Amino acid sequence: MQNNLPVVLVHGMFGFGPGELGALSYWYSALEVPSPLPRLEASVGPVSSPHDRACELAAQLKGVRVDYGEVHSTAHDHARFGRDYRDRALWPDWDEAHPLHMVGHSLGASTIRALQDLLARDFWGWGSSEKWIASISSISGPLNGSTAVYYFGADLKTGLIPKSAGITPLLRLLELYTADTSQVLDNFYEFDLDHWGFSRRPGEDLLSYLRRAGKSTFLWGSDNAFYSASLQSSYRDNGRWATFANTYYFSYVSEKTFRYRPRGYFYPSPLMMAILQLPAWYIGHKQFEVPPYPDNSFTSADWWENDGLVPTFSQQYPHINGRHPVGDVIYSRSASSGFQPGRWYTQWERGFDHGTICSTPRRWQKGRQKRFYKNLFARLAALNIS
After folding, report:
1. What is the pLDDT of residues 297-329, one digit of tens each?
2. If 195 and its partner were Cys, which of 15, 79, 108, 186 is the partner (CB 3.0–4.6 Å)?
3. What is the per-residue pLDDT for 326?
4. 346, β-bridge pairs
5. Mean pLDDT of the chain, nearest integer
6. Across the chain, how many H-helices and E-strands are there?
7. Would you say the C-alpha torsion 61, 62, 63, 67 has a positive or negative sign?
8. Dihedral (CA of 7, 12, 17, 21) sign
9. pLDDT at 23 over 90
10. DSSP type of residue 78
11. Distance between CA atoms of 208 and 200, rounded to whole angstroms?
12. What residues contact residue 382 under an 8 Å CB cut-off, 6+ apart?
């Protein structure tokens, strides 16, 4: 039985919402293709933790002021309340009887998993449950973390950014996102760190703003996007973010590397976005002398195949901690019926790197990207939502 529930699109790290970078669109053809379901585009903190982003997403949907929670805010030394979304709710009737489909790219996938956990715990006292979310679709999501965070400066033992690193991790990541945006990013980008006391001042250039933010506990603490994408943080999160029996779960795995024998390392495809090739090379060769999480089955080589920012091993489904049942590997034209809630279904999208599957496809990939989103939305619409 077809449903007509809205789809909420949640961007990843360094992403942006509608109108925030002028005419640039984070979701590209996902907003253009025909869809049987209405689409809602969210805007959350580009470098904030999944918890903080989930709180911002919930407030936007419900139309309330952002509440990060007293215990959480005290523990991380930032303000409890954030921006006010009253009178501009995206889905004011949101509840168990009016659930939503959630689609997240990259860290957006972690954000919607964190959101479902908070709803299940009735974090805001709304009488919420995990059933407020009908389905979760992860696109290139670091469901088990990404070894790329260590390329950007995270400590191998803790996953945290060392104080001595300064703003280097921010600058390295920013390079990835300025390649296609030129001066637009410097002129308009806002990191949404108001609750940390870091709003961009009038006339302040982006580098100066980053230097101020880089001196705060935000960057080298555990309440930010960088630490959240580490293997250490993901191990913890997978132990507490459940796979719920009444929710449908899909993961779309992007990949654009090739294996070179005899050592078996993975190298970036020559057609991968140029700015992703160095982190792709790093991921494809990364050896851990000490496992980053407590699992005797950890093998460095499992994490080598990647899309430029996230290993495919991580994108498939949560598996480094907790109980997360797994369904079949599916294909773009797999039957839309027959899916069971409470388990993760995986679809491989080889030939897309981390950026081209979502935001900016190459000229010859535009048609494929449109088909990808068209099929994704059709699949969600065909789900039997009781």
Report:
1. 999 999 999 999 999 999 999 999 999 999 999
2. 79
3. 98
4. 251, 329
5. 91
6. 13, 11
7. negative
8. negative
9. no
10. S
11. 9
12. 2, 336, 337
